[in-house]
Each structure stands twice: as structure tokens, then as C-alpha cells.
Amino acid sequence: MKNILLVLILLSFIFPSAKAVETEGLAPSENILLAQRRARNTKNVKRSRVRRTTKSPLSQALSYAKSGQYQIAAQALFKLSLDPRYKKQRMQIKYILGLMLYQMKFNQLSAFQFISVIKNMDPKYLKQSLEKLSLAADALGDDTLLNYAISRVQVEKFPRTMRDMLYYRIGEFQMRAKSYTKANQSFTRVRRSSSLFEKAKYLEALSYAEMNNTKKAIETFIDLYDSQADKSVTNPARVSALVGAARTYYQAKNWEKSIELFRQVPRDTEIWHDTLFESSWAMLRSGQFRSALSNFQTIHSSFYDNFYLPEALLLRSIVYLYICKYDEMEKVLNIFNEIYKPVYKDVRKYLKDVKLSAEIFDDVDAMMTEFKEKGEEMDKSKFRLPFIVGRQISKEGDFQRSRQYIRKVEEELRRLYQMSSDWKNSSLGRYAERILKTRLDKARKKAGRQLRRHLVNIRFELFDLFEQEGFIRYEMLNGKKEMVKKKVAGKDLPKTIDEEQERDFFVQNGYQYWPFEGEYWLDELGNYHYLGTQSCE
Amino acid sequence: MMLIMNKVLLILSLLYIPALYAEVIEFPEEELAQESVLPIFDRVEVVKSRNVPTSERFEFGGGFGLNLTEALYDNKSINIHGTYNFTNLHAINFIYIYPFEGLSNMGNDLANGKGLAANQEFDPSLAPYPESYMMLNYQITAYYGKISLSKKFVMNVSLYGLAGLMNVTFSDSSSVGAVVGMGQKFYFNRNFGLRFDLLGMMYQGPDATSAPNGLDPDLVKSQVSSSSLDETLFFRTFFNFGLVYLL
Question: Which of A268, A329, A337, A327 is nearest to A296 (CA)?
Fold first, then answer.
């Protein structure tokens, strides 16, 4: 018995805080305190022994950590993590080092420590490491890390306060994998009180739409919209719900309802521009040609010169085809060719010339940074990629996420360079720099690959649109031919709007009327009304 | 009475004929503007494809003006001006004003002794008077907009402010002063427009009322020199209007 007791005492010295640290909702100092308490509680004898001896480097590091001296603690723990004498405590050290780095807002570096613990499958620190890794990955917005963490985590063992985030991320992950039913199960578990509720609800509705369950999708969008009723009319969740419902009505071929909801989207929101084009499709489908052309007056105004909208031009030409405005149609098709043929050539050449993915990222990043600084007055000619294409692909969700992640890692690197020279030049500082630079490099390549994929899509899309342009042009020529035939046969054709410049019109009291004279005013966008009539017999 | 009423109704119905013949285009109520908010773009630009772009363009013009605060001399003038617009907002502007020679009605009255003590006359034309004003200004366009004067006639307008230095030439001397002003242009098209401006000037010059002999033509036989008069600070307000041509 005595022998067993002796062995236990010795063991407690070797593993000063060997018991798993309960971390639910606790600050790092509390975590460390707990770890120490566990270690102390093993045997009272140990305490008396510790008092008699000098503090071990690990105890010293832990006391730094406990007192909030994270920088010193991190340096000490990093050294200990490499020390072969602490091989057995390595996972504990790495976990606490991760906590220190997380507190210092080095999310990427802390994530590396937690991954190291998870890979080692040390049961004592696995759960906490997964939890902390999820938080660090969430802060970074790094999908790869998140996927890694959530694929191993057990939700019921995750702190209750963080479960919403986990359900949301799991749902996202399942949605990307096209497991929509499973995704919806995860999204519905995000509580209404959570800050992620709106996003989860939106994705839930989107999943229904993906499953072609338009009824349920609309119900979910309306539920989201109603839940935001007390918020401002431009509240992103509220507007997204409205747009989502309008899009789903379009999917369900309920054009009128779709148009009605699209019209409710406030003008002073980013998404309003998209809805203008999308509602034009609904208008065309429902035969509201005049309304569609009114929208095109806005979409094809100079305010949208630097927007990538090839389909809008073709759609406009189709509307003209329906109302037999062949001259206008030809003008629009010519504009389409004038703008997008060079764009297509440039994209093709760019894809051929630029082989390195990181180079694509650098080009688009530089373009967007300059655009942010100088606006549309920037020199667009110095970029190899057409500006409208660069701008379009930079708006893609996956690239936005990658760019955001890159910004966060860059921020971390900047924070590292702002540390004291002692810290920077320490082994941990050099390690941190190496890790962050490698991550940046890899992230740039990944973002570049995403951009390349979007560029390839644009190339295919344009190719397809050129083909469609050919068909539309054929229809136009056919229509013109029929018109000439009727003219030869002596039939009276309706006058075109151009011939009827001197039309009289009457503006009802209470309404203001401003004829369009070639100038586009910001406050007039969305208020244009096409006054022409159809020219078909 | 009924006959008169019928005639009135007939006239009214004839007056309404153009409106009855007008094409009626009905817009669904929900399609008409219901919001006064502006769409969001990365950069806020109020107008695109301006009908009257002024950036990197020269502008010339001329017209008439009135000196609103001149009592002794003829307050009418002619002016010419030239402007170079660096951008649609910023410009440099030169104005030359040539006042008409002669005295104002009040000046003539004084020269004829009206309102003065018996046998006393005061002829301001014997004192040096402003012969020309030249000014170089920085001009900023504070507002560019349009105005609808009828359902088919829209004019672009711009409101501007200017400030600069000026030179006033008197008969035998000259002085430097400062000028501030504001004005409005109404454009008929891309090149022609009307210009109205109001200029406030401040300059030093010889004070005609400080002549030792009171500018009595019986006592003062020739033009009085600037050096024999006291200097005073003049505040003058000019209202100018004329045509502008944008090159």
C-alpha cells in the first residue's frame, strides 16, 4: 500500500496538472487555475514538497499565464513544448500555449496548437482543443479549419453557449455537400436568440429552395422577414428574406408575386441593383415589356458602366424583339458585342498567360484595393484583367471569404511585427512569422484558384451568351424581313417611337415629369418609365 | 344667362381638346416613385453623362452689369470673362469690367448744385474715378442641377462661388483689392448659357469728397490727381449678367 502511495505521489510530480481542464465558459486564467487545482488535489503531500523546492519552469509558465502575462507565458510554454524533458506534458503545454495565443488574438497560431493536440488524440485535452479550435476558426472565417474541427467535435459535449455557432457551421458544411435535409436539421437547431439565427434561417430557406420545395422556402423566408419586423427597413436580414422570397416566387413561376416583392426591396440597399435585373426577368416572363424596359433604362445607365451585366443586354434585346423594335434591338446587340467581345478575348488571354494562382489573387486584390482608394477614376488600363470582370469575380462569396481570411492573417502578422523585438526575435516569434507567412502564401494560392475557376466560368458563360446573341440576331433579321415584306405589300405599319418625337402627353396633377435628355441622375435611378409602345402589327 | 354659360362651356371644351387627344399612358401606382432614398454605389456620384460637362473646358462670355452701390458715377458697365475649369468643380476665372463713363443722375445733380448750398457745386467727374476692374478668382461649382421650365424644356443650372484679387484702375492710379461673389448659370445646351453673378468688391481709392476745394468747377479747373485726395476704402457690389460659351 505504501509503495502504491509513493508511486502516486511521484506521478503527481511528473504530471503536475495531468487532469483534463474543464473549460466551459471559463477564461484562460480560470482554466489554468483549474488545471493547477487538479494537480494540487492529487495529494496534499505534493503541496508541501512544491513549497520546499524551486518552482519548475512549467509551474512558472503557468503562473505567468494565470496572472495574465500572456506574452511571457507563451514564450515559456513554447520553449517547454520543444523540451524533450516535458514530452509527456506536451499536449497540456500546447493546449495552454494555444489559449495564450488565442488571448493575444493570434487566432491562426492558436489554431495550430489546438490542431496539434487534436491530432495527438490526447483524450484529456481533445474536447477543449476542439472547442477552442472551432472558436479560433470561426474568428478567422477559415472553412478548412472549421470543417476539420466540426468533423471531430461532439455537439452535446460542446459548451451550450457555443452550440448555435456549431450547428450553424455544421449546417453550412452540410449545405456545401448538398445534404440539404441534414443541413436544415442543423439550421433549425440554431436558437432564435442566437446572433446566427438570421443567417441560419436564411440558409434553411435556401436549402428548401434548392430542394425545390418552394412552398416551404417561401414560408421560411417570410418567417425570417416577420422576425425582423421591428428592425429598420434596410436591415440586411430583413431585405435578404424579402429578396429570397421574391426569388423563390420566381422559381415557382409566380411572376406577379415575385415582381411585387422585388419592388418592396429598398433602394438604399446593396442588393437593390441585383433585384432590378432579376425583376426584369419576371417582367419579361409575365409579359410586362414596358416595365422591363423601364428597368433597363436604369440598368444600362452610366452608373452601371463598370458592372458586368452581359445577360441584361441580351434580355433587353429579347424584350425589343417581343415588341418588334428591331432598330433598338440591333443597337443593343451591337453594344453587347462592342463591350463583351473584347472582354472575352482579354479573359481568355489572361487565363492563358497567367499560370500562377497567387498571381491572379494579387492582380484582383490590387485592382480592388485601388478601386477602393480612387474609385472609377482609377487607371484601369494598367491591369491585364478587364475591370468589370475583376470586380465581378471579387464579389463571389468563396473569394470574399478567402480574402477576409487573408486580411485576418495579415492583421495577425502586423500584430506580430508590432510586438517587442524580444518577443519577435524569440523562437516563438520566429515560429509565428514562419507559420503566418506560410498560411498567407497558401491562402493566396487558394483564393487565386477560386478566382481562376470564376474566370473560367465567365469565359464559358460569355461563349454561351455569344451563341445566344447569334440566335437573337437571327430572329431580329427575320422580323426585319417580315416587316419589309409587309411594307412592300403596302400595309401600314405602326410608327416607331423615334418617328413620333412630337407626341402630346399629359401629366396628371400631383405627378412630376422630367423628360430624359441623356443625363443620368442618381435620384432618378429606378424611376424611369418607358413611354414607347409596341411596333408589332 | 344660359347662352353665356353654354358659350363658356364651349370655349372650355375647345381648350381641353389637346389634352383629350393626348396619348394616355397609365402607370400602375406601385411602379411610380415611392421612395426618396438613393441607391448605394461604391462611390457617390450624383450625376453621370452630364449634359454640360465643364471639366478641362474653357468658358468665355460677356455681358452687362450694374454697380449697385455707386452713387456718383454711371453705374452701368460691360464685362467680359474667361474661365478655365480644371474639373467639374474647380476653376480659375478672370473678369474684366468696364464701367460706362459719365456721372449718375445723382452725380449730375451735384454737378449742377442741386441739393447743395447756394452757389456751391460738386463735379465728381473732376476726381479720378474707376475706369476698369480686373479680377482673378478661384471659382467653385457648388451645385449642378436641372430645372424644368415646361414639360418639354429642361435647363441645366449651376451655382458657383468665387473669391480672388482684383485691380482697379483710376484715371491716374490703380489699386489692389479683394472680391467675393456668387452666381448662377443657366445652360441652353452643352455650349451656350446665361450667366448671372453678384460680386462684392473691396478696394482702396481716392475719395472724391476729400478734395480741398470740394470739386467746385468754378474753383477746380482741371482734373484732380489721386495724390491730392485722401484714400478711402470702397465696398462695391456688382450685378452682372451675360452670355457664356463653353469651348
Answer: A329
Contact list in A for residue B48 (CB cut-off 8 A) is 301-303, 305, 519-520
Same-domain check for residues A321 and A291: no
Q: What is the mean pLDDT of chain A?
A: 82
Does the structure show a pLDDT above 90 at A201? Answer: yes
CA–CA separation, B91 and B140 (whole Å): 6
Q: What is the pLDDT of residues A145-182, one digit of tens each?
A: 777 777 776 777 666 777 888 888 888 888 888 999 99
Assess whether A334 and A431 both reside in one domain: yes
Best probe of the A interface among B15, B42, B149, B157, by most A CBs < 10 A, is: B42
Counted domains in chain A? 3
Tell me, yes or no, whether A192 lies in a domain: no
Residue A126 lies in a domain: yes
The least confident of A75-84, A347-356, A392-401 is A75-84
Chain A environment of B21 (Cβ under 8 Å): 504
Whether A114 and A15 map to the same domain: the answer is yes
Mark whether A408 and A533 lie in a shared domain. no
E strand or H helix that includes residue B235: strand B231-246
Please identify, in words, the CATH class of the domain defined by B62-246: mainly beta
* Rounded-to-integer distance, Cα A78 and Cα A70, Å: 12
Res A18: pLDDT: 35
Which grid cell is A92?
A: 497540456
Residue with grid cell 470564376, as numbered in its chain: A454
Q: List the domain range (segments joined by +) for residue A125.
A: 1-158
Select from B91, B54, B60, B96 the least CA-distant residue to B77: B96
Q: Evaluate if residue B178 carries a pLDDT over 80.
A: yes
**Size (chain A), residues:** 537
The answer to whether residues A109 and A101 touch, using CB atoms and an 8 Å cutoff, is: yes
Phi/psi for B193 (5° steps) reads: -165, 175
Give the model's pLDDT for residue A43: 41
Distance (Å, rounded) from C-alpha B240 to C-alpha A13? 97
Stretch A293-305: mean pLDDT, rounded?
Answer: 90
Of B37, B49, B156, which is closest to A266 when you measure between CB atoms?
Answer: B37
Global ipTM: 0.76
Q: What is the residue extent of each domain of chain B? A: 62-246
- The last residue of a domain, from among A104, A136, A158: A158
Whose cell is 452601371? That residue is A304
pLDDT at position A44 is 45
Question: Which one of A369, A395, A521, A525 would you mutate to disrupt binding with B, by most B Cβ within 10 Å of its Cβ?
Answer: A521
> Among all residues of chain B, which has the CA nearest to that of A294?
B31
The confidence band for B200, taking pLDDT boundaries of 50, 70 and 90, is very high
Inside any domain, residue A404 = yes
Backbone CA torsion sign across B65, B66, B70, B72? positive
| Domain final residue pick, A115, A130, A158 | A158
Does residue A453 belong to any structural domain of this protein? yes
Same domain as A113, residue A36? yes
State the DSSP string of B199-229: EEEEEEEE-GGG-TTTT-TTT--SPPPGGGS
DSSP A59-96: HHHHHHHHTT-HHHHHHHHHHHHH-GGGSTTHHHHHHH
